[in-house]
Write a structure and sequence with these properties.
Radius of gyration: 19 Å
Distance between the termini: 39 Å
CATH superfamily of one domain: Putative cyclase
Number of helices: 8
CATH topology of one domain: Glucose Oxidase, domain 1
Number of strands: 11
CATH architecture of one domain: 3-Layer(bba) Sandwich
Low-confidence stretches: 265-274
Strand order of the largest sheet: 1-11-9-5-6-7-8-4-10
Largest sheet: 9 strands, mixed
Helix content: 10-25%
Structural class: alpha/beta
Order of helices and strands: EEHEEEHEHHEHHHEHEEE
Mean pLDDT: 92
Shape: globular
Length: about 280
């Protein structure tokens, strides 16, 4: 089969100075250090943490003494998968049942991209960060049990915002008003409904060895409902707990093109021949 018919899509948000940032964390500062007219070359410098825009997390981000980015084996970053639509609004929780019933069907060894619709709202706002929908324990466990290869989602984090430090988890609450708002709207204590801190991160990456990509966006709508070949490669950074990635989807209009599955047999980090740097 000729590859001339293949179509390529970028599922990545813009990266750079002034991009939206996780609440309570420092932003990315990028500026020109050298200019063509003055220095004969153009060069930029930036400072900031890596958890910005479309990026991949490593287990080390949430659990001490676990693998960094180079702990993921290369086969996890490339392969066939699906982009599924699971529309959600404020504080919506993606369920295992919704993943089970998603179309196209999520199969073992798939790369999975989840489209909630929130990528259209990515901005420096509470709507995107504090009131986002997201994954929680049940759905993360389902993805691990399905033995997927890699996953991405178009929301602020792998975890639901009410499972993060925005409320009374870890070093939080950074946004204590959310706890009162949840009680007013739901009539329940947020800590009763979301008792675990960063549980989706820990389930997917630490338990399942599954690379997780946050803030997927770009052309996501154009590939939703299709089987695709996905690729997203992080830096070769032995100490890295996360970094920006360019997520690309390749679509065959006839839905017949497939990359042979070259993955190893094991699915957890402990059994992978991960790079030792």
């Amino acid at each position: 089969m000729s590859t001339d018919c293949l179509k390529y899509y970028d599922l990545t948000h813009r990266w750079g100075h002034g991009m939206p940032q996780w609440p309570s964390s420092p932003g990315v500062n990028a500026y020109v250090k050298k200019f063509h007219a003055k220095d004969g070359v153009y060069e930029m410098e930036f400072e900031g943490i890596m958890h910005r825009g479309t990026h991949m997390d490593a287990p080390l981000h949430v659990t001490e003494n676990t693998p960094s980015l180079t702990g993921y084996p290369l086969w996890r970053f490339f392969g066939t998968g699906v982009a599924v639509s699971i529309p959600k609004g404020k504080w919506g929780v993606i369920t295992a049942e919704e993943l089970e019933n998603a179309e196209p069907r999520i199969c073992e060894n798939d790369i999975v991209m989840i489209n909630t619709g929130m990528h259209h709202k990515m901005a420096d706002t509470d709507e995107y960060y504090a009131y986002s929908p997201g994954l929680y324990k049940e759905a993360a466990e389902w993805l691990v049990e399905r033995k997927i290869k890699m996953m991405g989602i178009d929301v602020q984090a792998l975890d639901h915002p009410l499972g993060t430090k925005l409320v009374d988890h870890g070093p939080g609450p950074s946004h204590p008003h959310l706890m009162d708002e949840y009680m007013d709207e739901m009539g329940r204590d947020v800590m009763d409904d979301f008792p675990h801190w960063e549980i989706s991160h820990k389930t997917l990456m630490v338990k399942g060895g599954i690379p997780g990509i946050e803030n997927v966006g770009g052309d996501l709508d154009d590939v939703t409902g299709k089987r695709c070949t996905f690729m997203a490669f992080p830096w070769r950074w032995p100490e890295g707990e996360g970094c920006g990635v360019r997520v690309i989807a390749v679509v065959d209009p006839e839905q017949e093109f497939r990359i042979p599955d070259l993955q190893e047999k094991s699915h957890g980090l402990a059994g992978d021949r991960a790079e030792e740097d």
